[in-house]
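Supplementary Methods. Inverse-folding protocol.

Structures were first reduced to a discrete structure-token string of length 391. This string, shown here, constituted the complete conditioning input.
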């Protein structure tokens, strides 16, 4: 009989050995501990046959709102035990084991044609949260930058506070990423999962006050397809003025120094730099998706509605969750919506009006101004995507 449990401190080496036997990127004790990894496990007797590793994260939704979640890096099941429902059981056990520490689970997977995407969506009930697009461009002859960039390659030299100030300033209107701290960039250099395959660079443009006006976290690699290149793991620059053009010139110069012929970047269509990247002549490679699910959307809805202080009664029904009622007062609104629309609404990936226009939300009865209240409590926010967060 297969048994499932949450991993303990003494399980790390057995988990790492199973991951090494799989087709995923191997983890080391340093990257496992440095990223505070945890896991749920499946055993057949004394034999470890499956593991679902996760990384706890504090995730920014936008507008100053955030939530605790666990991010799945990959699912591992021994070949002879596959197609027996063990992966699905691991996911169910994950949601139960972490429901008191996190409110959601996220995963990054391929486009709608991939088997992994279909498994997470159709089998496990994950929902699309954000499409991402990968672009590439061959390196042109470098153009001189108006301001000399600074490049760091050693974690202990990285100016964390200045980077954090630049990041916070340029993402103030966005969500869609783990919250940053001053040590984030140094920790990335030290504990990133692909550190054996990447050579990290951080190129920055200083401002007049001694801070950082724009920067790009880069990685030199030829991983997977053998093409020597620079991957832009994170790009941060003002959308107006010349600084991002100067930063791109600095990236081309770094590519020349690293003797690579191509630069790649992955970002969301909601990113402030999306149109600009396409205008620079980058061409599309593929599409992927950030997917996720709230552990208990009804409790999450109740918590935020209560915190808002709204005196209004809501009656919501979904196919998978049934009927639920919140709030108080004579004014009420009764809705029917899909489970995916509920998840998207609560995570600020769509507005109530948008869901209604798309037919994913139906107003059954009550005062329509309740939709306005929902949009105030759960406003639509734009999300960025940074490759460094989803590797």
């Amino acid at each position: 009989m297969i048994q499932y449990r949450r991993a303990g401190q003494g399980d790390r080496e057995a988990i790492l050995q199973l991951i090494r036997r799989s087709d995923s990127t191997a983890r080391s004790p340093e990257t496992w501990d440095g990223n505070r990894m945890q896991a749920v496990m499946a055993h057949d007797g004394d034999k470890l046959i499956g593991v679902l590793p996760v990384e706890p994260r504090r995730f920014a939704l936008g507008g100053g709102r955030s939530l605790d979640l666990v991010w799945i890096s990959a699912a591992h099941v021994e070949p002879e035990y596959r197609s027996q429902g063990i992966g699905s059981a691991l996911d169910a056990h994950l949601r139960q084991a972490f429901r008191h520490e996190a409110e959601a689970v996220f995963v990054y997977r391929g486009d709608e044609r991939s088997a992994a995407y279909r498994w997470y969506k159709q089998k496990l009930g994950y929902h699309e949260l954000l499409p991402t697009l990968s672009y590439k461009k061959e390196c042109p002859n470098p153009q001189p930058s108006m301001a000399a960039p600074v490049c760091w390659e050693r974690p202990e030299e990285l100016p964390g506070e200045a980077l954090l100030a630049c990041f916070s300033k340029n993402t103030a209107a966005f969500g869609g990423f783990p919250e940053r701290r001053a040590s984030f960039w140094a920790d990335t250099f030290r504990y990133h999962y692909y550190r054996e395959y990447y050579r990290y660079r951080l190129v920055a443009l200083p401002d007049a006050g001694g801070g950082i006006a724009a920067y790009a976290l880069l990685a030199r690699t030829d991983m997977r397809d053998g093409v020597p290149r620079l991957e832009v793991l994170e790009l941060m620059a003002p959308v107006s003025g010349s600084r991002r053009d100067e930063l791109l010139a600095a990236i081309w110069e770094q590519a020349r120094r690293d003797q690579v012929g191509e630069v790649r970047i992955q970002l969301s269509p909601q990113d402030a730099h999306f149109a600009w990247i396409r205008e620079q002549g980058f061409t599309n490679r593929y599409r992927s998706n950030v997917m996720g699910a709230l552990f208990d959307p009804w409790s999450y809805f109740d918590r935020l509605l209560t915190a808002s202080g709204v005196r209004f009664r809501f009656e919501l029904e979904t196919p998978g969750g049934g009927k639920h009622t919140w709030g108080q007062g004579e004014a009420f609104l009764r809705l029917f919506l899909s489970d995916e629309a509920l998840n998207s609404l609560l995570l600020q990936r769509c507005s109530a009006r948008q869901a209604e226009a798309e037919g994913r939300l139906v107003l059954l009865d009550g005062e329509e101004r309740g939709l306005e209240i929902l949009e105030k409590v759960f406003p639509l926010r734009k999300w960025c995507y940074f490759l460094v967060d989803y590797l």
